[in-house]
């Protein structure tokens, strides 16, 4: 045994010496991960401390309650009484559930419809155009929305006023009632085309034999779509469903940040923008860290729940 | 042999509906951009009268001239171009070399490296601890906060890895026997053979860099020097919007930046992407397909 151990040790050294260049390529990446991914993990302790930037993670004292006793869960208790936080949770959930209802199936339907377009050139143009918004920043896209709904100069703002649906000078984004719809529709336009790529790719694997057999049996196009195309992409659909459910507490920071304003924030404030507000703008770092931690814990649990549901319903999951 | 079958009336109706629906989707997608370009090419005072939807009424390039006369915008433009170029080159180099080294079959500690890479995909510290780390590293309020945290991307490693797997081993082996070092092997043989995948990933990274707003807002709000174009557009839009919200119907509207100049700024901050996108679309699609196959 000792002999083998020695031999193995020696050969590892020899190997290392022979592959030092390969190691030199890999090690900077590993160091990078230690700094940028693992140190922030340690930084979670800030949630249990009365954190002060000047003292750092290590030297900041543990959180204490009003009586001066050590109370590491002080900040976790605080969020139970934080109405603004729960409002942001509610908004996040509603926006994401609407997304699950609308923005999740839309690219699937779009891919099915697009694959029914016979004219190749037309199909190509539709694809090129519909992918485009995905590459535009949310800032610009949100900026377009703000400008389109401008009551004095914007097309949609003036259209709404012109048709008498809203009074003169009505600025849609100044009212909290419309934010859920606005968020959902803007996400739909931005991601519809790009989201469909994956399903279009899956659709190319539909077997020709199956299609021909179905045609012989006299199946029409709708039946072919329902009984051949849809089952083909089912695995892909499951995977993306799991991602969608595990992201229920996530949000697009840039999108919400640009759409949010002082008058609509009762519905436009989501967890991510709230954590930013508390942590960076108000510098309440320990509390914001605690909020972030709770959010990622729930997201982690959701991943398992979604995988479980997907396995039960469709028989396929991530693992 | 495909069987030609006559289309029923219902199917023809479906076809018409389908072609029409696609046209509507295209219009809804393109029109907002078209509208902003129209607004940016119209005289500022005239624009405020409203009613400009499809063509400029009073043509002018003055809005663009005004945009490029502003020091803060020129500075933001330079910062954004620089971060995109430097960021993409360093990211591709750092991540590419890592992926190549990582692919070596007899790499010592490979299992350990895998583990180190995989764990952060499932758990992270969150926004605030990351922000505090950047403060500790003295990266906030510097240009380098746009470069260093972007150096490494494990998704890109996975995509490169699956591409490298398709390159015959004999090629590398022959080069090694000839005494070629790993770095030379990467730059002289592997990189030229992997150009498509590198191009696709570089494009995605470049778009991410160009569009990035979060890091400018969080890490560089303390100084105006390193604000990016997206961040500047946000500041401009928010300022104008708060005037509007305060002014309200019939109220006094004090616009610090004219509407048309804002439109021109929006166009400038996205034009490079709109211009390159149609030509590079196939690389983008290639990139997402390679990534998807991996799943």
Task: Describe, in plain words, how this protein is organized in 3D.
The complex is a heterodimer of chains A (319) and B (295). Chain A is an all-alpha fold. Chain A has two domains: 2-74, no CATH class; 82-314, MetI-like (MetI-like fold, Orthogonal Bundle). Chain A contains 17 helices and no strands. The two termini of chain A are 38 Å apart. In chain A, 37% of the residues are buried. The longest helix of chain B has 36 residues, at 259-294. By secondary structure, chain B is mostly helical. Chain B is globular, with a radius of gyration of 25 Å. Classes of the chains: A mainly alpha (319), B mainly alpha (295). At the A-B interface, α1, α2, α6, α7 and α8 of A face α1, α4, α5, α6 and α9 of B.
Order of helices and strands of chain B: HHHHHHHHHHHHH
Number of domains of chain B: 1
Oligomer: heterodimer
Largest interface, counted with CB-CB under 8 A?
A-B, 104 and 103 residues
The CATH homologous superfamily of the largest domain in chain A corresponds to MetI-like
Index terms:
heterodimer, A: mainly alpha, MetI-like fold, 2 domains, 17 helices, B: 295 residues, mainly alpha, 13 helices
């Amino acid at each position: 045994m000792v002999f083998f151990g020695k031999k193995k040790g020696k050969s590892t050294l020899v190997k290392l010496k022979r592959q030092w260049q390969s190691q030199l390529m890999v090690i900077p990446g590993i160091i990078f991960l230690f700094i940028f991914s693992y140190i922030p993990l340690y930084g979670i302790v800030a949630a249990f401390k009365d954190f002060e930037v000047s003292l750092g993670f290590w030297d900041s004292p543990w959180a204490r309650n009003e009586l001066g006793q050590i109370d590491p869960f002080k900040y976790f208790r605080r969020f139970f009484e934080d109405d603004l936080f729960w409002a942001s949770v509610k908004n996040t959930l509603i926006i994401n559930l609407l997304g699950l209802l609308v923005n999740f199936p839309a690219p699937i339907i779009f891919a099915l419809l697009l694959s029914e377009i016979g004219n190749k050139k037309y199909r190509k143009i539709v694809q090129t155009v519909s992918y485009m918004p995905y590459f535009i920043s949310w800032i610009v896209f949100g900026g377009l929305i703000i400008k389109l709904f401008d009551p004095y100069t914007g097309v949609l703002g003036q259209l709404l006023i012109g048709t008498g649906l809203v009074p003169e000078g009505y600025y849609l984004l100044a009212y909290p009632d419309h934010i859920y719809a606005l968020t959902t529709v803007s996400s739909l336009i931005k991601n519809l085309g790009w989201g469909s790529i994956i399903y279009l790719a899956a659709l190319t694997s539909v077997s020709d034999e199956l299609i021909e057999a179905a045609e012989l049996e006299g199946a029409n196009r709708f039946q072919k779509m329902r009984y051949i195309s849809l089952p083909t992409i089912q695995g892909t659909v499951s995977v993306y469903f799991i991602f969608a459910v595990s992201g229920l507490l996530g949000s697009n920071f840039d999108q919400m940040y640009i759409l949010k304003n002082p008058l609509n924030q009762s519905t436009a404030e989501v967890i991510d923008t709230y954590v930013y507000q508390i942590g960076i703008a108000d510098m309440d770092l320990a509390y914001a860290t605690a909020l972030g931690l709770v959010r990622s814990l729930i997201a982690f649990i959701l991943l398992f729940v979604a995988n479980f549901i997907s396995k039960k319903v469709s028989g396929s999951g991530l693992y | 042999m495909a069987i030609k079958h006559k289309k029923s009336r219902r199917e023809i109706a479906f076809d018409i509906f389908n072609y029409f629906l696609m046209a509507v989707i295209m219009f809804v997608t393109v029109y907002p951009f078209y509208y902003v370009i129209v607004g940016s090419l119209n005289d500022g005072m005239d624009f405020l009268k409203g009613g400009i939807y499809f063509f400029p009424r009073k043509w002018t390039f003055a809005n663009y001239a005004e945009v490029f006369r502003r020091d803060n915008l020129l500075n933001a433009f330079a910062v954004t171009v620089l971060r995109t170029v430097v960021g993409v080159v360093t990211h591709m180099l750092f991540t590419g070399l890592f992926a190549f080294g990582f692919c070596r079959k007899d790499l010592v500690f490979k299992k350990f490296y895998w583990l180190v890479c995989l764990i952060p995909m499932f758990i992270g510290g969150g926004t605030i601890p990351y922000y505090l780390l950047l403060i500790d590293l003295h990266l906030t309020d510097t240009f380098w906060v746009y470069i260093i945290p972007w150096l490494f991307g494990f998704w890109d490693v996975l995509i490169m890895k699956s591409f490298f797997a398709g390159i015959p081993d004999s090629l590398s082996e022959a080069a090694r026997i000839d005494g070629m070092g790993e770095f030379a092997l990467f730059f002289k043989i592997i990189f030229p053979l992997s150009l498509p995948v590198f191009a696709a990933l570089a494009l995605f990274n470049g778009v991410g860099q160009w569009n990035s707003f979060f890091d400018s807002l969080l890490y560089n709000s303390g100084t105006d020097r390193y604000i990016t174009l997206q961040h500047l557009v946000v500041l401009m839009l928010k300022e104008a919007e708060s005037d509007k919200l305060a002014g309200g119907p019939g109220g006094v509207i004090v616009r610090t930046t004219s509407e048309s100049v804002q439109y021109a700024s929006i166009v400038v901050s996205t034009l490079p992407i709109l211009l390159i996108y149609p030509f590079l679309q196939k690389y983008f699609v290639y990139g997402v397909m390679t990534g998807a196959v991996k799943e």
